[in-house]
Amino acid sequence: MLERARILDAGDPLKDYRERFSVPEGVIYLDGNSLGCLPKATPGRLEQVVREEWGEGLIRSWNAAGWIELPTRIGAKIAPLIGAQPDEVIACDSTSVNLFKLISAALAMRPGRKVVLSEPGNFPTDLYMVDGLEKQGLATRRLAPRERIAEALDEDVALLMLTHVHYKSGAIFDMAALTKAAHEKGALVLWDLSHSGGALPVDLDACEADFAVGCGYKYLNGGPGAPAYAFVAERHLAAAQQPLTGWMGHAAPFAFSDDYAPAPGIEQVLCGTPPILGLAALEVGVDLVAEIGVERLYAKSQALSEFFRQCLSERGVDLDLVSPTEPDQCGSQLSFRHPDAYAICQALIARGVIGDFRDPDILRFGFAPAYLRFEDMAEAARHFAEVLESGEWQRDEFRERAAVT
Ligand SMILES: *Cc1c(COP(=O)(O)O)cnc(C)c1O
Q: Who lines ligand 1 at CB under 6 A?
């Protein structure tokens, strides 16, 4: 297995990119879908922003170092990764906050309709943001299982809000078909790309998507709590109004007017002053993903997950796979169900194989292909088999739950 892995690694067109990331010794990192690895260029860039741009340039750096343009500059770099135009994307705030802004904007564009349709088991924050709007009387939440989403679309639905690649199972929604189905009923569509952006090719404009949000700290390697991004289709930029009408979304923030007037473009999605350190780190991660290219990244992550499954099966590990088995229907991850998923995950982490656990019984392994080798798959499968065979996961220490799982 290791032999075969090494042959695959030698022929891997992305093999040199591993060197561009800090991957700790002795760690097989299968959690890049939760927090991407540190690009080696990030500390130097942050040092420069802190010491030169902040320390020396001070307030002048808003112009001289281009700080004020960072949200749109990074947005324009994310755009081609998700099939958008450069002026349709902006990097700002968290995914949760951007959801609030764009769900609200969509509801206001469909007067007389209040329903936001989603699926049960969508990422919690997506559903909670709709709850918050419901408590204010602005939205009605409707959930339908993924097979019945199209049936649940009717003339009451203002917005269809879905996560493109499911965070637990990795299952991919048919973005083009569902967007079309929603539009046929007069509804708008918002896609959460947190597990898609930087992991697989997405074509928002070709699918005629209306809105999208996505995360900066997963496949974009922007660092813990990195700013997220928001997409508004060009045709909606004039009509959409998001409710967090902060001064940075104003048409002329430095006119210091008493009255709000939205910026005509995607800048309207901004609220307050952008976090420059976070954006500077995010830009390094985005540049690296753009350099490698999402097509190549997805092709390799598919090959890695296929190889991981083969290695598991050759070692006789037969677990309940909850991810789709058709490669083109699954994102860059594999998830397995096991009643002792938490303890097994902890036992693997103790061996340096870092995947994660998702309540109540899911073991999730992400394949961020820029820094993973086929050799890592073979080794991770060996550890997995050994943890199960030895029963070492049954030790007490592996059952204690930490605050973040
Ligand atoms: C990770 C993730 C988020 C994260 O939202 P934050 O506001 O950054 O905490 C949102 N939605 C999905 C689908 C995610 O996977």
A: 94-96, 123, 125-126, 163, 167, 192, 194-195, 215, 228
Residue 190 Cα, ligand 1 centroid: separation in angstroms?
14
For the chain, the C-alpha Rg in angstroms (whole number) is 22
The reply to whether 203 sits in an annotated binding site is no
The yes-or-no answer on residue 128 being catalytic is no
Q: Which residues of 253-290 are buried (b: 16+ CB within 10 A; e: fewer)?
A: beeeeeeeebbebbbbbbbeebbbebbbbbbbbbbbbb
Predicted TM-score (pTM) of this structure: 0.97
Ligand 1, atom 4, lies closest to the CA of 95
Pair of tokens at residue 65: 């170092």
CA 188 to ligand 1 centroid distance, Å: 21
Task: Tell me the pLDDT band of 54, cut-offs 50, 70 and 90.
Answer: very high
Q: For all residues of the chain together, what is the average pLDDT? A: 97
Per-residue b or e along 40-74, where b marks 16 or more CB atoms closer than 10 Å to that residue's CB: ebbeebbeebeeebbeebeeebbeebebbebbbbb
Q: Can 382 be counted among the known catalytic residues?
A: no
124 is in an annotated binding site: yes
Task: Find the helix packing angle between 124-135 and 95-108, rounded to 10°.
Answer: 50
Query: Sorting pLDDT into bands at 50, 70 and 90, what band is 405?
Result: confident
Strand partners, 232: 211
The model's confidence at residue 134, banded by pLDDT at 50, 70 and 90, is very high
Q: Which helix (H) or strand (E) holds 231?
A: strand 228-232
> Can you list the domains of the chain with their CATH numbers?
2-30+293-398 (3.90.1150.10), 44-291 (3.40.640.10)
Burial degree of 400 (CB within 10 A; 0-12, 13-18, 19+): exposed
Residue 364 phi/psi, 5° resolution? Answer: -120, 130
What is the whole-number distance in angstroms between the Cα of residue 237 and the centre of ligand 1?
24
